[in-house]
Amino acid sequence: MVKSGHATRRQFLQGMAAAGAAGALVSPASLVMGAESPNERPVFATIGLRNQGWGITSKSLGLADFAALADVDANVLGTNVERVKERQKKAPDAYKDYRKILERNDIDAVMIATPDHWHTKISVEAMLAGKDVYCEKPLTLTIDEGKLIEKIVKQTGRVFQVGTMQRSESDKRFLQAIALIRAGRIGKVQKITCGINGTSGSPEIPVASVPAELDWDFWLGPAPKVDYRALPEIRQGYGGGVPLYSNCHYSFREWHEYAGGKLTDWGAHHVDIACWALGEDANSPKKISPVSYSLPVEYKDGYPLVHDRYNVATKFNIKVEMPNDVELTITSEGDNGILFEGTDGRFFVNRGKIVGAPVEALATNPLPEGAIEAVYGGPVPSNHTANWIEAMNARKQPISDVWSHNRMLEICHLSNIAMRLGRDLNWDASKREIVGDDQANAFLARESRKGYEINM
């Protein structure tokens, strides 16, 4: 059944699409005012609700109505249904199976915050079901998944936002960094260092009983069928309330079966800014060299030989040759953030600061008026979702689009492949394949488990 207000909202979105064709975008201020009119608010659903899933939902409640939530953990699902009910004064429908959401005609768009290995399947199926998509970073588990998502975005015309919030939600520090580079304040860029921190391995994690509230088989989904593993110690702080060591909630990032470790987790943030600064014509890698790295378990032919503990790289120093003789380093050492070095100076930026002589010089030689807006392509919203809704209204791709994200994420994926195989990789950016290395190219794709293939 379609909600009574849905036709009106569709007409509104279609009208804004016409405005978008004329080059107009809705301002963040008008979105807030429009949010007071229920018939003009888009209807969302969130799939995957732990941690970041609730984070993106809570930031969007002032801009959209949430009709449904989905999660394979009944406790997580129930908790977040109550949270949304309290905020919007109406309970969203609750589902374990996300496909129930995709079947509904009254839902305009979905927000996806599942573990990484589910991103592509849900994203593709959502677009084919006529939904616009917001998916958390890193968008894909493999490079070929990125190609598929790009194909479906083009095929369906859906608006797709990737959750790389550093493009809009870090007090404009990263936008200022790019504006400094575009203004020539460090001369020609020679080197960029992305510090993304390392991680630690784990002790042996034994097979354990699956929590009663969790559908473990559905959580695994496209990944290989394995036993649930966990130690009794509970994680504290962010992501807390679950086992500190497991192959499931929160800790999934430490397993190549489900994610890419720090390289794709934090790399998806800082390498993204580095590539944005270099520009579209110079952001594809030429050669990836694993200068030094540490894997917590033994590997053979790129695959871990031990399956009862974390297997992603714990320490790393990756050298990437970029166009125009720019050296990009991705390292687990030093401060988390990005160091830009050029012929005329250098500066450092992260979520807490932007420092260096070119930054200090702004006191007497400020950037031109509108320089930051020029980087962003218009007024900068304080909320990443606001840019997505602007793009939905105009039927244009948002600031965190799938193409720029995938070009950047290819560097991160290739870095992981280089470490798993223990050798340099040469990349053909036009063909999007590794040069002369069939074994390495086999890691560009991954077969889904039977029964969890993408429904095309």
UniProtKB/TrEMBL annotation:
It comes from the Bacteria. InterPro entries: Gfo/Idh/MocA-like_OxRdtase_N, Gfo/Idh/MocA_oxidrdct_glycsds, Gfo/Idh/MocA_OxRdtase_bact_C, NAD(P)-bd_dom_sf, TAT_signal, TAT_signal_bac_arc. SUPFAM superfamilies: Glyceraldehyde-3-phosphate dehydrogenase-like, C-terminal domain (SSF55347), NAD(P)-binding Rossmann-fold domains (SSF51735). Pfam families: GFO_IDH_MocA, GFO_IDH_MocA_C2. Residues 80-163 form the Gfo/Idh/MocA-like oxidoreductase N-terminal domain. One of its GO terms (molecular function) is nucleotide binding. Residues 200-453 form the Gfo/Idh/MocA-like oxidoreductase bacterial type C-terminal domain. This is Gfo/Idh/MocA family oxidoreductase.
